[in-house]
Amino acid sequence: MILVAGSANLDFVVRAHHIPAPGETVLGQDFNIYPGGKGANQAVACAKAGGAPTRMLLAVGQDAHAGPLLDSLRTAKVALNTVLVPDQPTGCAFICVADSAENAITVAPGANLCLQSQHLPELEGVSHLLMQLEIPIPTVTAYALAAREKGVKVVLNAAPAQPLPIELLEAVDILIVNEGELATLVPHAGAVLVNLAQIAVPCVVVTLGQRGCLARLGNNFLTQASFDITAVDTTGAGDTFCGVLVAALDQGDTIPSAIRQASAAAALACTRAGAQSSIPAANDILALTATQTDSSPEKTRALLSWCGLA
Ligand code: RIB
Questions:
Q1: Which of 47, 92, 111, 214 is positioned for an S-S bond with 59, CB 3.0–4.6 A?
Q2: Is the CB of 107 inside a 6 Å radius of any atom of ligand 1?
Q3: Is 239 in the pocket of ligand 1 (CB under 6 A)?
Q4: Contacts within 8 Å (CB) and 24+ apart, 97-102
Q5: Is 41 touching ligand 1 by the criterion CB < 6 Å?
Q6: pLDDT band at residue 5, thresholds of 50, 70 and 90?
Q7: Is 37 in the pocket of ligand 1 (CB under 6 A)?
Q8: Model confidence pTM above 0.90
Q9: pLDDT tens column, 35-62
Q10: 309 falls in which pLDDT band (50, 70, 90)?
């Protein structure tokens, strides 16, 4: 069983030609509301795309925004530990998705910031605890230490980017970050490989967008080129990656196999709009990994060179 402890946000999304620069107003296109939040997205990815028994600890307000978030998690068969916060609004995110499929996100965390150490449920039967950084860092740290104490593997997606206390990093078994997040965690940021070497976590996975990803397992490096797709909206792709990776590990897969499935799932998530609405079914991931067995030599070379491995 995977326990995801983290945020749930209702996403208010507008598409536009480009993401506005500071002080600029852009006339957008269509507007939609989707269930989101890094924690909830990852829980849905674990359960729906990864097929793993999943429970989520989350906090919501007593308002109309909470219902769609709880419904989406239940539909994905995520069991819930819900903290109701009467005097705070449910978390919301305001997202602009550009024609390039990139996004800019502003989160109003609301009730998410009320998750505290005493809310952690019993860890009996939990194999992995998966967390992100849209709940307070002291809470994340307390949960990680409690999980480490019980022999539960701690997986941290250090997003959004922020510096972390050393006692938290020391309790993490697997760290998942993008390049920007990785740079925030090291005192002397440089190339990906240099930054990776400065992180004292046994397994670190760095996602590199369209290039693919790089993982360090102890002293060994592993790369996975991205799958070829046409992206329409990258929102939730990183969350899908994290959820599917942990679901595969929960089911006994090796790290290379888990990373390959997670990469395929993240690619598929970019082909659909929204966060939880874009998370693929397990069969779609199987189909993509069966059809795209090898990446092109040019793409592999470019990935190795970007990582400083060639
Ligand atoms: O990672 C995407 C998510 O970030 C969105 O769903 C939004 O809610 C923010 O948490």
A1: 111
A2: yes
A3: yes
A4: 97/13, 97/14, 97/15, 97/16, 97/233, 97/235, 97/273, 98/15, 98/16, 98/17, 98/18, 98/19, 99/15, 99/16, 99/17, 99/18, 100/18, 101/231, 101/232, 101/233, 101/234, 101/270, 102/19, 102/234
A5: yes
A6: very high
A7: yes
A8: yes
A9: 999 999 999 999 999 999 999 999 999 9
A10: confident
Cα–Cα distance between 58 and 301 in angstroms, integer? 42
pLDDT in tens, 120-176: 999 999 999 999 999 999 999 999 999 999 999 999 999 999 999 999 999 999 999
Domains and CATH numbers, the chain: 2-8+36-90+111-307 (3.40.1190.20)
- Report long-range pairs for 253-261 (Cβ below 8 Å, ≥24 apart): 255/203, 255/215, 255/217, 255/222, 256/222, 256/224, 259/205, 259/213, 259/215, 259/222, 259/224, 260/224, 260/289, 261/50, 261/285, 261/289
Choice among 239, 250, 284, 294 that is catalytic: 239
Task: Please confirm, yes or no, whether 239 is among the known catalytic residues.
Answer: yes
Please list the residues that pair with 221 across neighbouring strands: 216
- Sorting pLDDT into bands at 50, 70 and 90, what band is 197? confident
Contact 164, 185 (CB under 8 A): yes
- pLDDT value of residue 302: 92
**Distance of CA 294 from the midpoint of ligand 1 (Å):** 31
Structure-block tokens of residue 171: 């309790």
Tokens 């189909």 correspond to what residue? 287
Question: Which ligand 1 atom is at minimum distance from the Cα of 9?
Answer: 8
pLDDT by residue (tens digit) across 252-273? Answer: 999 999 999 999 999 999 999 9
Nearest-CA residue for atom 10 of ligand 1: 37
